[in-house]
Amino acid sequence: MTATTDGSAEGAGAGSESTPGAQGLPAGTGVGRARGPAAEPGRPPAPSRAGRAGPRGARSAPPAAEPGPLLPPAGRQGVATMPPEAKPAGPAAPNTGRGGGRARTADPSAGPGPDRPGRTTTAADLRRPPEGVRPGVYEAAARATRNLLERQDPEGWWKGDLETNVTMDAEDLLLRQFLGIRDEATTRAAALFIRGEQRDDGTWATFHGGPPELSATIEAYVALRLAGDAPDAPHMSRASAWIRAHGGIAAARVFTRIWLALFGWWNWDHLPELPPELVFLPSWVPLNIYDFGCWARQTIVPLTVVSALRPVRPAPFALDELHADARNPHPVTGLAPLTSWDGAFQRMDRALHVYRRFAPRRLRKAAMATAGRWIIERQENDGCWGGIQPPAVYSVIALHLLGYDLRHPVMRAGLESLDRFAVWREDGARMIEACQSPVWDTCLAAIALADAGLRPDHPALVKAADWMLGEEIVRTGDWAVRRPGLAPGGWAFEFHNDTYPDIDDTAEVVLALRRIKHPDPARVEAAIARGVSWNLGMQSRNGAWGAFDADNTSPFPNKLPFCDFGEVIDPPSADVTAHVVEMLAFEGRAGDARTRRGIAWLLAEQEPSGGWFGRWGTNYVYGTGSVVPALVAAGIAPGHPAIRRAVRWLESVQNEDGGWGEDQRSYKDPSWAGKGASTASQTAWALMALLSAGEREGMAVERGIAYLVETQREDGTWDEPYFTGTGFPWDFSINYQLYRQVFPLTALGRYLYGEPFSPAGEA
Question: How far apart are CA 170 and CA 218, in angstroms?
């Protein structure tokens, strides 16, 4: 398999199937840190802690294995795997350490799988119900508790499916087509899922009930063409007609056009230039790679290689039907005024296109080699990059273009990791998760169970604590670029993401551990102390906290013509800052000067309406549900004007059915703030704020609790098709399928038993 390039990067290794040498990428570079022995057939591997504290780049290769296509996941937790005759051939995946994406629930509401009996909950496990509570509340909490306990993995973690949109599935098929490894079974299963998400008008949206989205519709259409759907089939012709009517391929986002350029469906000359020399910029120069958020950084570095080499694979068919004008597929658009940021960066992009023709070859080769090393150094134990699917996809493409054969350990581990993002559903459809959330789901589940009255030494909570303690990251990552000398000690979101622990998960894990009576308290205290210290060290200059980096606030990355795919920086947010403040208050640090700065920032960020913007959850309901409990925990009185304004706003946006909901459209249109169909998770967020503000006896709380009780299903779950999570505001929405379970249970528990802590972490 060779890459066709435009010839501008001679000697860069494009098209070579041999292990690279001239690029400065050694043949023996391994993947991951200290892999364990191979897993037993049909069972996930046991987690491995080996190599966690070692220096970045100290890696060992996985066990030798025969090459094969990407592998389907082993059946687990009630998931329908492919029939034996449909499974691609190949050996079992090697041990990946820390869980490696093993939860595969086709329906998160289905309860325990056939190979994992549910745990029973006895009266001794739960607190007695308080006197005089609303009928049915205790019973609802008990049902939800039983259901959540039944979902726990034997190793102690929880993970719900993370649903995004069909671009994940389309790009997975395009990657396989690019690498020459697309197989019939995977294609058929992916197409089944993509077709199932198409709407009556022929389009695809990026969240449940959302408007049609051009790029998602284009990518889904192309994926179905790969699967053999005829362009004149009714569902395809409706899609192509809508695409043409809305500007065609030329109006799509840059990422979509990059995927099409890989097959000659779009011209590389009509894409923004992304030079690999970017990796040489020091951290103090604007637009260096550390000015980008970690998710964007992990994507941009491999894309600099792709942009430099401009590969083109033979297109299996034409896409003329997707151009608004097939005779002029690349319409020229005018430049914005030079005095505007857009105009300045557009002209800079034109200058970079000129530079491309004259770039010194030795400098460009060195830049691509450096980018390749940067990518490999950040490959995780399970072969993935950052625990996120998009950077993994582009990293695999970039390394292959640099000459890495598909049989190379780096590539093989990377390809195998991508299969662990696949959820195989009962109907045979295959959905790709953009990411996996076991640490986040586990700490939230532990908080919910504890707040709902599960005894603190319950085996499920102790097992969860053991697993979370084993997930602590004690090596430095990219965050140290801006915080050199800060001792590590945090938690990431995913099974494997040692390079990018995050501040939000670290705060919530500490809050969870504080609720659990562990048999080794010294171990817990030591981990909490490291987490608190690391979070304090990651405070930004303005007194608040971002998700992954400190002071990641440069205004320039979002201005680049390339960056039209969503948020690419990681500035502080109200929800993350609130979770850190809440954690610090429970650790007895409410009076710490750094905590007070965080509180002051939160008070200053309150919207005129009384709510707070939610960066990582939708939206003002999430922000307000995060901030109010934190402020009260930190000593802000419930009668404080800011708390009263928040209460009035929440009461004003409560729906007629007693619940709360907010549509993703609120990110683009503030008139949608607090408006949308009621959901269990958003109702819980509002209740958590109102309860902390002393509104337990208020009518809004009574109606909200009644909504949760009345909408609960018999198995203790709630139905929630709406997307209440956020990756990039508006641009990338998430349906965390465990949110509908953990947050309602937390709210019910706090209604029954009150706030879980007094300040300083005392019960």
Answer: 9
Residue type, 440: W
| Residue closest to 757 by CA, chosen among 607, 606, 597, 583 | 583
Structure tokens at 311: 């590969």
Phi and psi dihedrals of 490, rounded to 5? -150, -175
pLDDT at residue 393, rounded to an integer:
96
Buried b (16+ CB within 10 A) or exposed e, 216-245: bbbbbbbbbbbbebebeeeebebbbebbbe
Q: Which amino acid is at 389?
A: Q
- Tokens representing 296? 């964007």
**Phi, psi at 133, each rounded to 5°:** -80, 160
Residue 13: predicted pLDDT: 37
Task: Report the pLDDT value the prediction gives residue 343, as an integer from 0 to 100.
Answer: 83
Report the pLDDT value the prediction gives residue 121, as an integer from 0 to 100.
60
DSSP string, 188-254: HHHHHHHHHH--TTS---SSTTPPP-HHHHHHHHHHHHHTT--TTSHHHHHHHHHHHHTT-GGGS-H
Cα dist from 682 to 66, 261, 504, 529, 717, whole Å? 48, 41, 19, 32, 15
Burial 719-746 (b: 16+ CB within 10 A, else e): ebebbbbbbbbbbbbbbbbbbbbbbbbb
User: Which positions are catalytic?
Assistant: 504
How far apart are the C-alpha atoms of 560 and 638, rounded to whole Å?
44
Question: How far is it, in rounded angstroms, from Cα 173 to Cα 133?
Answer: 53
Helix (H, G, I), strand (E, B) or coil at 267: coil
Q: Which residues of 365-389 are buried (b: 16+ CB within 10 A; e: fewer)?
A: bbbbbbbbbbbbebbbbbbbbbbbb
pLDDT at 119: 52
Both structure tokens of 324:
């608004």
Return the pLDDT at 304.
97
Residue 46 vs residues 92, 94, 382, 443: alpha-carbon distances, Å? 14, 11, 12, 20
pLDDT at 650: 98
How would you write 368-395 as a 3-class SS string? HHHHHHHHHHCECCCCCECCEHHHHHHH
**Contact (CB, 8 A) for 321 and 591:** no
Give the number of other CB atoms < 10 A from CB of residue 668. Answer: 11
What is d(CA 646, CA 620) in angstroms, rounded to the nearest whole number?
Answer: 10
Q: Is 309 helix (H, G, I), strand (E, B) or coil?
A: helix
Q: Whole-angstrom Cα distance, residue 422 to residue 430?
A: 6
- The first and second tokens of residue 467, run together, are 């697993």
Q: How far apart are CA 324 and CA 331, in angstroms?
A: 10
In 3-state terms the chain splits into helix, strand, coil percentages (rounded to 5) of 45, 5, 50
Asked whether 132 and 170 are in contact (CB, 8 A), the reply is no
Distance between CA atoms of 740 and 736, rounded to whole angstroms? 8
Paired sense of beta strands 430-432 and 422-424, if any: antiparallel
Name the β-bridge partners of 435. Answer: 388
Task: Tell me how far apart the alpha carbons of residues 658 and 639 are, in angstroms, rounded to a whole number.
Answer: 24
Mean pLDDT by 10 residues, the chain (763 residues): 38 36 34 32 34 32 34 32 34 35 38 39 72 88 96 98 97 98 97 98 97 98 98 98 98 96 97 95 94 95 97 97 92 84 84 92 97 97 93 97 97 95 96 97 98 96 98 97 97 96 98 97 98 98 98 91 83 98 97 98 98 98 98 97 98 98 97 97 98 97 98 97 96 96 98 74 33
